Structure formats: C-alpha cells, structure tokens
Amino acid sequence: MGKRIVIIGGVAAGPKAASRIKRVLPEADVTLIDQDNLISYGGCGIPYYVSGDVSDEQELRSTSFHMVRDANFFNQAKGVRTMTSTRALAIDRRAKTVEVEDLATGARSAIAYDNLMLATGSEPFVLPIPGVDADGVFTISDLHKAIEIKRRIAQGMVGKAVVIGGGAIGVEMAEALTDLWGIETVIVEFMDQLLPKIVDWPMAAALANHLRQHNVEVYLGEAATEIVVEDGKAVGVRTGKRTIDADMVIMAVGVRPRSQLAREAGLNVAANGGIVVNERMQTSDPAIYAAGDCVEIRHLVSGRGLYAPLGSLANKEGRVAADNMAGIPAVFKGGIGSFVMKAFDMAIGATGLSLEMAKAQGFQADSSLTASADRAHFFPGSEIICLELVFDRRTRKVLGFQGIGPMNDSLSVRIDAAAVAITAGATIEDFATIEMAYAPPFSTAIDAINSAAYAAENLCDDRMRQIDIQSFLAWIADPSSHPDWVALDVRHPKQAQPNVDKFGAALWLSLPYDKVRSGYQVLPTDKIMIIVCNAGSRSYESQLALDAAGLRNTVVLPGGYNLIKRIDADILL
Question: Which residues are the active-site residues?
C-alpha cells in the first residue's frame, strides 16, 4: 500500500490536491471526504448560474471536456476514493485517524492517514436578527441553495428581492436577479459604501451609481434589523430607516473559515478563525495540511494575516499542499487579495491594500486617481478606465491598485500586471516604467498604469496638490460650506458653459487650458481654485503654469470630470 492521504473537503482545494497527488505519486492511497453530495463545483460561478449566464448547474461541476466532476469521476478517472455525504466528526492526531459518519446510514468509522489535509472551506455569516430562519431567506453557501433560488425565480415566485450586504457576492447576486429576471432588487449595506475595505470610496461610489442606473436600489449606512415574516415566509426587511418589501432575501454579509474540526483537534487557529499554516501549507501538526477558504495566509504587502476566500487561491494552495504531501518541496508565500468582478456594464477590481486599509495598518499612505483611455483614443471603441494607485510616501512602494472600467478585459489586465509588480515589491518608479504590450486596439503608448504612477510621483514629490473628491462633492452640494472656493474649468468653453450657467460665473470660472499661461491675470488671488478638466492631466499642467506665475492658490480635482460623472452623472453637466 502507498502513502495514505486523507483530504476533508471536496469543493476547490481538496479536489485539486487529490488530483495532483495521484499525478505525482500514483501509488498513493488518496481518500476525499465531503459532507455534501455535490462536489468540485465553481462556487464563484453561482451568481452567473442564477442570472442565466450559466444555464445548467452541471456546467459548474463539469470539466472543460464536459465530464461531471462527481464521486464516480474522481473514483474512476482520478483514482481517488471519494466519499460524499460523509461528515468528518473528529481527528485523533495521536492515532492518526479521522472519525467519519455516513449521513445516509448514520454508520461511523475511522480512516487512518499518514498525511491529512483540511479543505473544509467557509461558512456564511448569518445576522443575529429576527426572521432569519423564515422561508425565502437564503445564504449563498452551496450549490443546493443556488438551485432552489433559481427554481423559485423561474417559477415566478419572486418579484421583489432584498440583498443584505454590499460585498462582491451581494453585488453579483443583485445583478443576477435584476439583469435577466427583472426582479425589483434592493441592496442594504451597513457600511457607508459598497465593497468596504476592498476598494476606496470613489470606486465604490461609482459602482453604487452604476447599480442605481440599472434599477438596483442601494441603501448605504443602514443595518438590517429584522426579516419581516408572515405565515412563516419572508415578506420584507426592516432597517432603522425603512421597511422594504421582498419575496426573497439574500443574506450576503460575508463568510468565515470553517475551522471547528481543526480547533477541536488542537491545531493553531488565528483570531479570525483561519487555520494557521506555514508556506508549505502545514498546520501546527506537521502531518496535517490545510488549504482553501479555511486557512489564513500571509499578506505579501502588510506582512499580516490575510483571509482571502477565493477559488483562485484555493487551487494554488491545494497544489502546494499536495506537492509537499507527495514529497516534492513547494511553497506558497501568500497573497495580496486580487479580485475583479462585473456589475452590468462595469468592471471593478483591486489588488493589494486600499488607501483606507493601508492607513489603518500604519503606512504613510496616499493615492493617485486618474482617468485614462483603455486603448488609443483614436481607435474605435476606446473607453475610460479610472484607476487608483496606493503608495507609501516614506518608501515609495506601491501598496495597492484598484479601478473601474468597461466590461471588457481592459481593467483586468492592469490589475493583473499590478498584482505581479506589487508582489515583487515594486515602487512608484517601477510602475512608471512597467512595460505593457502596446497596439492601438489594446492600449495606449503611455499605458493607463504608467499614467497612474506618474500622478503618484507628482504627489509624492509634492509637485501636485489635489483636493479630496468627497470634499469637492460636499462643496458642490453646498457652496456656502467653503465660500472661499471656486472651480476653474480649463476645458473648452462649450464644455464649461453649462456649469457656469448652473453654478454662476462667480463660482465656476472658465479659462481654457491653452489660455492659462497668457490669461491668468483675470483669476482671483483670494480664493482656492479647484482646477477641473476631463481627466486631470490638463488641470495639473495648469497648476504648474499658475505656480510659475505666482498663483499657488490651486488644487487639482483628481480624475477630473471623467471620474466625477461616474460617481454622480447629474452633479456636473
């Protein structure tokens, strides 16, 4: 008999590890255990199954050559003994056995191992509020619930839905319910922005605006306090401000590691519940490994623990664990939490730390905001991507990178490039010279990622002064809050005129970019001038010209009109 390897968990990391072991150590006796009867599915694809983009749930469980990854597939095609509908009850580390229970019969048995791997995944948070057990309240925890959600929608049982939680899954589910099915959908988020701690406010605000434009109402800064129930069924959600009718409630308020088995076995578990592992994916017991949504890994920017429940990371971790169990030295150094998602016609993504999180973790952090063309401006179909580059003023290292853009690959390729560079410890200057493949249909000669770095250089070296976007928007909403502020619009007069008419010539000044150097004498010296253009680049050059003329009473609106109009299309014309 070969080496006995037992793997608990059959969704992502577990099947990956089992298959890898049988490839590199064919004589190994590998057992895969899962308490569900549906295994090895793409959980990140659930919103797209609900939306109809993926028509059949079997597609989430199928290989690229259309074989369903069920117990028979792993038994026959992979040579992995697969035990579904089987719950792991306890680990006896001294005897090196796992006690399991057959959920169909109740029979219990012990399975011996030489190496054990925990891939127990995550479980959804459930808010401790009245009504969470009512019919029609769902978490996105497994494929069974996704199937039931889609069944109810397809049978016309859902006309209104409330999604509690504005994280990635919440946003994706709101789109899924609205886009194909036309369900009246509301997102309720406790924090004051969507995707909290993942992206910063400007990107989150643009996402919220985009959702509202596509008939998804978004209520921010509101906590769900109760599920309203009638005759055992959910009929609404109550917050501190309103009651929202609903035929279905999706609770998407985050997940936590499923680590009870590890904790009861005496393994080290982090404060966030993640199983502590080293770079070889070993737990505090050298004979036991762990991978996937149940583990805490190292954040490669902050050096702190990172909980990142992503299928992409789970598969990589599973492979590393498999190699080490098979006797092949391998390491997984950690991650930086890269992600990208779609919301109707918008893509939004991030990698590394947001500005908020970087400051919270003690970095001397700042960020640049830019709005650039995703390909040559003269090429048909060119669109704008808005980017934020987060950096440390002390070391000049790039800490994070995020953005919004059209629903194509223009954002994801920049996020991917940034992820590699940040992982390697890149500085602002490295980003300024990073080489991206160039051709007019795909990119610009000076890529958007380079432009973001140029803006960061100017900020870090104190060559550019800028205004916080939220402060600018607050002033626009109430100019009396800062009577000493005025806007200086350096776009073409025809572009500036609607805002001059709306806000008044005393509040909104127009001086075209090519007239700044010769016509600056008409500008006020007793006001703070907020320089506005489409993207921010003309504003910066205008600021430099005015500085040279002795007028240093200016700040630049970062990202310009291109970013502002994505946050609120009506605030500027």
Answer: 44
